[in-house]
Design goal:
Keywords: Bacterial flagellum, Cell projection, Cilium, Coiled coil, Flagellum, Secreted. The protein has 433 residues and is of the alpha+beta class. Helix content is 46%, strand content 22%. A 5-stranded antiparallel β-sheet has the order 1-15-3-11-12, with no helix packed on it. It has a 4-stranded antiparallel β-sheet with strand order 7-8-4-10, with helices on one face. A hairpin with a 4-residue loop joins strand 5 and strand 6. The model is unreliable at 1-5 (pLDDT under 50).
């Protein structure tokens, strides 16, 4: 290890001098670092462009899916009836009109007994469900209402038992089905001291399609208040008995399809904006500055190709203006949602074919453009790696050069010190003569 005391003999600030000399020596490395910074900014810019192109591809892919064009929307003429569609792949369009005859209800039964003591002399209860299944519940350990309720709750029969205390030392054993519908109703045989009564009977929900006496009319039932078999893929839920002439329509969801087209157009405009940003050159009066990709024709060409998909129209269909898609003066794409909806509703098959064809065209172009940009990114990254290797090599050379300069100046200071010592000795000898 070489050490030195800056200018101890010479009076020169040799540490500062070494630092200045090393700045000159490092000019090549500094230039490389600047180039690396420039390339890294370019890579980031290319990645931003690719992100926008990927968004176009995703939106175009969604627009081309069959599920998009099978999007359906259900509407009901009654506020007490709701209709919702399920998967677009299974939902069918259609219309049904019906009367709500009854709602599904869960059974509630009760029996009374004194609050303490046995409520029955039987050691078991026999419960028969509405679907015909029969179960025995052991109550021999505790025949009180509380014991009976505990046994029923532990039997897992879909019946909830509770004990409600009344005035006068009596209690009520309340038995409630956990699910609605006739199949979930029940009867209970347990030799209770008082009769088991049913204030709320189990019922199924019932709809009458067409009049009961009408030719072709029919009724459908459900253990819940939701019906899933009137229109394939649509669930119809009723909440009020006695509603008549309820109409449920399931039609193609034009708004959902239109939103998909808009998403693709928005993604295209997002890419135009990003490309313009990354290739811009600021020529304001105060300063001039270039963006990371200024002068990169290949990136600007992507915008031109995307715009060309609009201006070129579709073979066999013509101008995309029929779809509400057109170019603007500022180099973007506009979308007229009202026009698209009108043309789609007028001829769904033709507009579906044209739109999906255009979406495929845009998707393929976006995918190819991403591949091209990715190749450029990979090339730039390789260049950055190479320059970073060179910079590391410079670090080794510069460290060696700094060590050499430090040693040279230290040697100079040592030599000057020796000369000063000799000069002082000679002066002393001459003075003694």
């Amino acid at each position: 290890m070489t050490t030195s005391v800056s200018g101890l003999v010479s009076g020169m600030d040799t540490n500062s001098l070494v630092t200045q000399l090393m700045q000159v020596e490092a000019v090549g490395q500094t230039r490389l670092k600047s180039k690396v910074s420039t390339e890294e900014k370019a890579v980031t810019a290319y990645q931003s462009v690719n992100t926008k192109l990927a968004a176009i591809e995703t939106a175009a892919d969604e627009l081309g899916k069959l599920a998009t064009w099978r999007s359906a929307k259900a509407t009901s003429s009654s506020s007490t009836v709701t209709a919702t569609t399920a998967s677009a792949n299974t939902t069918q369009t259609g219309t049904v009109t019906f009367d709500v005859i009854s709602l599904a209800k869960a059974q509630v039964s009760t029996t009374r007994a004194v609050s303490t003591g046995d409520a029955t002399s039987h050691s078991s209860l026999t419960i028969t469900k509405g679907d015909g299944t029969q179960s025995s519940v052991d109550i021999s350990a505790d025949r009180s209402l509380a014991g009976i309720a505990s046994a029923i709750n532990g039997a897992g029969l879909g019946i909830k038992a509770t004990v409600v205390a009344l005035e006068g030392g009596e209690s009520v054993l309340q038995l409630s089905s956990t699910k609605a519908g006739v199949a979930n109703g029940f009867t209970i045989d347990g030799g209770f001291d008082t009769e088991v009564k049913t204030p709320t009977a189990a019922t199924d929900a019932k709809l009458q399609v067409g009049g009961a006496d009408a030719d072709g009319g029919y009724a459908v039932t459900s253990t819940s208040n939701t019906f899933g078999n009137l229109i394939t893929g649509t669930s119809i839920t009723v909440t009020k008995e006695g509603e008549t002439g309820v109409r449920v329509d399931v039609a193609s969801d034009t708004s959902a399809i239109t939103a998909k087209v808009k998403s693709m157009v928005d993604a295209m405009n997002g890419a135009f904006s990003e490309i313009n940003k990354q290739t811009a050159y600021n020529t304001s009066a105060s300063k001039s500055s270039a963006a990371a990709l200024t002068g990169d024709f290949s990136v600007r060409q992507i915008s031109q190709k995307l715009l060309g998909t609009v201006s070129g129209g579709l073979d066999g269909f013509g101008s995309l203006s029929k779809l509400g898609i057109s170019l603007t003066r500022d180099g973007t794409v506009s979308f007229d949602e009202t026009k698209f909806k009108a043309t789609y509703e007028a001829d769904p098959d033709a507009i579906k074919t044209a739109t999906t064809s255009y979406a495929t065209k845009v998707k393929e172009l976006s995918d190819a453009s991403q591949n091209g940009v990715t190749d450029v990114i990979n090339g730039r990254k390789s260049l950055i790696d190479n320059m970073n290797d060179q910079i590391s090599g410079w670090d080794v050379r510069l460290a060696a050069r700094k060590l050499a300069l430090t040693r040279q100046f230290s040697a100079m200071e040592t030599s000057l010190s020796s000369l000063n010592n000799q000069s002082s000795w000679l002066s002393g000898q001459l003075a003694s003569l």
